[in-house]
Write a structure and sequence with these properties.
Helices cover 38% and strands 25% of the residues. By secondary structure, the protein is an alpha/beta fold. It folds into two domains: 172 residues, Ribokinase (UDP-N-acetylmuramoyl-L-alanine:D-glutamate ligase, 3-Layer(aba) Sandwich), CATH 3.40.1190; 133 residues, Ribokinase (UDP-N-acetylmuramoyl-L-alanine:D-glutamate ligase, 3-Layer(aba) Sandwich). It has a ten-stranded mixed sheet with strand order 5-4-1-8-9-10-11-12-13-14, with helices on both faces. Strands 3-2-6-7 form a four-stranded mixed sheet. Strand 4, helix 2 and strand 5 form a beta-alpha-beta unit. The radius of gyration is 19 Å and the shape is globular.
Length: 311
């Protein structure tokens, strides 16, 4: 069982248009509503690969019911705390030029008793869980130490915490030595407090995080690939995705997290873990939806991905 935590889930409203002009009427060519949020995306991908998944967090109103109902239809066990208000809608406007504009709502406000109820339920899922994914933003009323607290709880239970978030949420959680973190370059720069110019600087930074006690660091570099550092490994591995036409890059980082979970359960070595993460993420980018996968296409891409060791 892999348990995913999405404290601030969303309906991802994907709008396609020829172009977006500020201060003008913009007509969309198509609109699709998809259950989303980073942990929800991870759960969706894992179910596409046949793994048993539970989804925890907060939901509110009609939007929240939409998210929970969708997850149940694809076989995800759900244990959300229902709160007042409305689960957010994240509007993603995709232009014909490939650029995406995101408009993100804040989500509902969480009261102290609602957070306490979530924490109690979270603890009950740990004995059933092999991996616990903590990812995404947090709603109003939830502090920046929440993922640090949850990582502490996971570590104390002997299970493995995988963290994918940003800013102070990520910095605080990293201080608790999670099993894995997956920052992008901007998030890594925030963590280390400086600009990182070039691959060598990024390698040095993620090595430092592993040396601090974090088990695995996968650094997402977008179309430039992924760097992977692991505790006890002398080399950092680098893989670049093949050239593909990207139709929707939203959720590609979540694909990396889901793929890492699969590799941990299947016992893949470091090189195979990285190659599969890049293949599944690149496949997701080449498909029109969010957090979609095509196992046959990913397998074909996997064969063509080269991994380079950086000493």
């Amino acid at each position: 069982m892999i348990t995913t935590v999405t404290l601030n889930p969303a309906i991802d409203k994907v709008c396609a248009t020829q172009g977006l002009r500020l201060g003008n009427v913009n007509r969309m060519e198509s609109v699709t509503n998809i259950a989303g949020g980073k942990g929800v995306n991870v759960a969706k991908i894992l179910r596409q690969y046949g793994y048993e998944v539970a989804a925890l967090g907060f939901i509110a109103g009609y939007s929240g019911a939409f998210v929970a109902d969708y997850l149940r239809t694809i076989g995800v066990a759900t244990d959300f705390i229902a709160v007042s208000g409305e689960t957010r809608v994240s509007t993603n406007i995709i232009g014909a030029d490939g650029y995406t504009t995101e408009i993100l709502e804040p989500g509902p406000k969480i009261e102290e008793e609602e957070l306490a109820a979530f924490l109690a339920g979270f603890a009950e899922w740990l004995p059933k869980s092999e991996l616990v994914v903590l990812s995404g933003s947090v709603p109003q009323g939830v502090g920046a130490h929440i993922y640090a607290e949850l990582t502490d709880t996971v570590n104390a239970s002997g299970k493995k915490a995988i963290v994918d978030t940003s800013d102070e949420l990520l910095v605080n959680a990293a201080g608790k030595k999670p099993y894995m973190i997956k920052p992008n370059l901007a998030e890594l720069e925030y963590m280390v407090g400086r600009r990182l110019k070039g691959l060598d600087a990024a390698v040095e930074a993620i090595r430092g995080l592993v040396d601090s006690g974090i088990g695995h660091v996968l650094l997402s570099l977008g179309e430039k690939g992924v760097l992977y550092a692991k505790e006890g490994a002398k080399e950092v591995l680098y893989a670049k995705p093949p050239k593909l036409k990207a139709l929707n890059t939203i959720g590609c980082g979540d694909s990396v997290v889901a793929s890492f979970c699969i590799s941990q359960l299947e016992g893949h070595d470091m090189e195979e873990t990285l190659r599969r993460a890049v293949a599944i993420s690149a496949t997701a980018a080449s498909l029109p939806g969010i957090a979609e996968s095509d196992k046959e296409k990913a397998e074909e891409l996997y064969k063509d991905i080269e991994v380079r060791a950086i000493t």
